[in-house]
Design brief:
Length: 122
């Protein structure tokens, strides 16, 4: 389930769970109860990465991106990370913090739609 994550990644994930952003907290308030019968974990290690939110049964990763993700070097890292996760069989969706704050219902509906698509594939 942790896909070979090393102890350092586990410790970082614990720290990130203790210090979630406001946007992550807002999204987690919906995900922690599960959506469509699928449970999520927060700040979950996957190899050398940490997914903001992760559904193991569907191999579904949800990322909440703050302003730092607009920096060119971070965008480049995110693209490589997402490509790696996709190659390893994970579905990844990203939402900006702004989307989470301004259109929470639309974000949750999009997540539910992706869940429906994935459960029909697997």
């Amino acid at each position: 389930m942790f896909e070979g994550a090393n102890p350092i990644v586990f410790e970082l994930a614990k720290e990130l769970r203790r210090n979630m952003t406001v946007a992550e907290q807002k999204l987690w308030s919906h995900l922690k109860q599960g959506i469509g019968g699928f449970k999520f974990r927060r700040q979950h290690p996957l190899k050398n990465y940490i997914a903001d939110f992760y559904c193991h049964k569907l191999k579904f990763v949800i990322e909440a991106d703050g302003g730092i993700h607009n920096k060119p070097e971070v965008k480049e890292y995110d693209a490589i990370r997402e490509q790696n996760l996709n190659e390893w069989g994970y579905e990844v969706v990203r939402f900006t913090n702004e989307q989470i704050f301004k259109d929470e219902e639309k974000v949750i509906r999009r997540i539910a739609d992706i869940i429906d698509e994935l459960k029909n594939k697997r």
